[in-house]
Each structure stands twice: as structure tokens, then as C-alpha cells.
């Protein structure tokens, strides 16, 4: 009995200094638990980890998915090819950088490390919840006036300032995401967040036709992947019948859909929808891909 009592006092004493002895624990801590950011931007996710003395950590990686063998490192995930880098910015501290963010990158990211034997593994829970959003203008029709709202799928940090554009020209800045006014149904309206003016929302217009390209010129490296972003508007009583990208007009025929051109087979992907987004992705860029790319749509109205 005396031995057990003495032992319990010793345990209580050691527990009181666990902050000092924390290196004997397996743990992962994250700088932040959730992030909301824009598509096409770059984000950094940071973590630090501890492990018991006597072990040597040989493998560290971030992941979002599992396969039959366990977690899949983002560097081995085809969806992130060429877009992720790992960096060690301090002792036992690692930062994950993801470039050219896509809305499909929205997921919970976790950090994992293993020892030299491969038998001891630890994953930091719950990880970092990343939400990737674009901007969308929503129109609410009222009795006296209409309201435009610059909408996102997650809450942006730091109380952003919204910039409104009319027919491509800057109209106003406001800390409110809503813009009440008497809007013309033949003008187009779009929005952006200050500091991210290059990430413009698709334009909305009740009775006009337009195609807006996010960038007028793009310089990219051979072998890389590029997204050519654009948005389009058309009268609300019309429906999209055909939409495609082209680089030149065929004699006597007109524009030719790139998806039917043999040299672009397996080389392009249309990421747009039949509402407002008309983004084109070109993979494994070649020097001969240098051209003027244009978007065309035809409605059934």
C-alpha cells in the first residue's frame, strides 16, 4: 500500500509539468482550423508536430484522400499535379502551398508523419478545413428597387471591401456585399473583392449579350497547365444550345470547336457550365498553342 501511494503522488507531480515534457507525445498542431479563400489564388497551410524521444521521423506529408494502402500524399495525387509544394520552415514545422486553387480543392487537409520503422504513424486531427470559393452576383428584384449581392460559398476573412463594375467599368466600393439601386436590364454588373481585383465574378445582365475574359493576355511555360477564364451573359428568356472555344475561323464555315480539332484531342478540357462560366483548361502546353482563343455560344431563343 505504501508503494502504491508513493507512486500516485509521483504521477500527479509529473502530470503538473507535462508542458515541459510534451516532446514525449505524438501530436500535430495547425496554425488555423479553417480557411476561406478564392479559386485561382494560392494558399498556405501550416502545421508543427512533436514525437517521443528515441524516434526518428522519416516521412511527412499532407493528404485529403485514402486508398487501399492508406492516406495518399498530395504530391502523389493526380488532381494536385504541379500545384503543391512542401517546405520545412522551422524545426518540426511544415507548410503546404497549393497554387491555382479550384473549388474542387475544398476539403479537410491533414498532416501525417511516420518514424524510421514505418510502424509508428500519426495523423493530426481534425486537420484544416479549406473552402475555395468564387464570386457570384445574385439579383433580387424588389418593388421599389433591385438589389445585387456579391455572394461567396464561405465567409471571407477580414471584412473585405467589395468593388462593383458596370459594363466592365468600376462603379463603386463598399464594405457591404449588397448593392441596392435601380439597375438597367440592358447593362451588365459584376463584382470583385479589393486586393483580388483580377478575380472578377461572372457578369449578370437581364437583357444583354456579352463574353468577358478575365485576362486579356496570358504567359505560361511550355509543359504547364493553364486555365483561360471567362464569363458570359445572355437574356433570361434564352437557353444555351451550344458553347465552345475556337482559335480561328475556317474558310466558308466559321469558328471550329477546338474539341473537334485533332491536335487538341486529350489536350483541352472545357470547365464551363451552361449558365455563366466558360473556363477552358489547356494541359501540357506546347509552343504551337500560342494563339488567340475565343469563346462562342449559341442559344435556342
From TrEMBL:
Residue stretches making up the Ig-like domain: 126-201
Q: Which UniProt keywords apply?
A: Signal
Under the heading InterPro entries, the entry gives: Ig-like_dom, Ig-like_dom_sf, Ig-like_fold
Which Gene3D superfamilies does its entry note?
A: Immunoglobulins
State the signal peptide span. 1-22
* Entry keyword Signal: yes
Keyword Signal appears in the UniProt entry: yes
Q: What is this protein called?
A: Ig-like domain-containing protein
Amino acid at each position: 500500500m505504501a508503494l502504491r501511494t508513493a507512486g500516485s503522488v509521483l504521477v500527479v507531480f509529473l502530470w503538473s509539468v507535462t508542458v515541459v515534457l510534451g516532446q514525449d507525445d505524438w501530436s500535430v498542431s495547425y496554425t488555423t482550423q479553417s480557411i476561406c479563400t478564392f479559386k485561382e489564388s494560392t494558399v498556405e497551410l501550416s502545421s508543427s508536430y512533436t514525437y517521443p524521444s528515441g524516434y526518428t521521423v522519416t516521412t511527412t506529408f499532407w493528404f485529403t484522400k485514402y486508398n487501399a494502402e492508406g492516406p495518399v500524399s498530395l504530391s502523389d495525387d493526380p488532381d494536385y499535379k504541379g500545384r503543391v509544394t512542401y517546405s520545412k520552415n522551422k524545426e518540426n514545422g511544415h507548410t503546404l502551398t497549393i497554387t491555382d486553387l479550384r473549388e474542387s480543392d475544398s476539403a479537410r487537409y491533414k498532416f501525417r508523419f511516420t518514424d524510421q520503422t514505418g510502424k509508428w504513424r500519426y495523423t493530426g486531427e481534425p486537420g484544416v478545413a479549406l473552402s475555395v470559393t468564387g464570386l457570384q452576383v445574385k439579383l433580387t428584384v424588389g418593388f421599389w428597387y433591385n438589389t445585387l449581392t456579391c455572394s461567396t460559398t464561405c465567409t471571407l476573412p477580414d471584412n473585405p471591401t467589395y468593388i462593383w463594375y458596370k459594363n466592365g467599368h468600376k462603379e463603386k466600393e463598399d464594405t457591404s456585399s449588397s448593392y441596392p439601386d435601380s439597375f438597367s436590364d440592358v447593362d451588365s454588373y459584376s463584382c470583385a473583392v479589393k486586393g483580388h481585383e483580377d478575380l472578377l465574378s461572372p457578369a449578370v445582365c437581364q437583357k444583354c449579350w456579352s463574353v468577358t475574359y478575365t485576362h486579356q493576355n496570358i504567359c505560361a511555360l511550355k509543359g504547364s497547365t493553364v486555365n483561360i477564364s471567362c464569363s458570359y451573359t445572355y437574356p433570361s428568356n434564352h437557353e444555351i444550345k451550344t458553347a465552345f472555344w475556337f482559335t480561328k475561323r475556317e474558310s466558308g464555315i466559321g469558328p471550329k470547336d477546338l474539341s473537334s480539332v485533332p491536335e487538341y484531342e486529350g489536350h483541352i478540357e472545357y470547365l464551363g457550365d451552361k449558365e455563366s462560366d466558360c473556363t477552358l483548361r489547356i494541359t501540357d502546353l506546347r509552343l504551337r498553342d500560342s494563339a488567340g482563343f475565343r469563346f462562342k455560344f449559341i442559344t435556342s431563343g
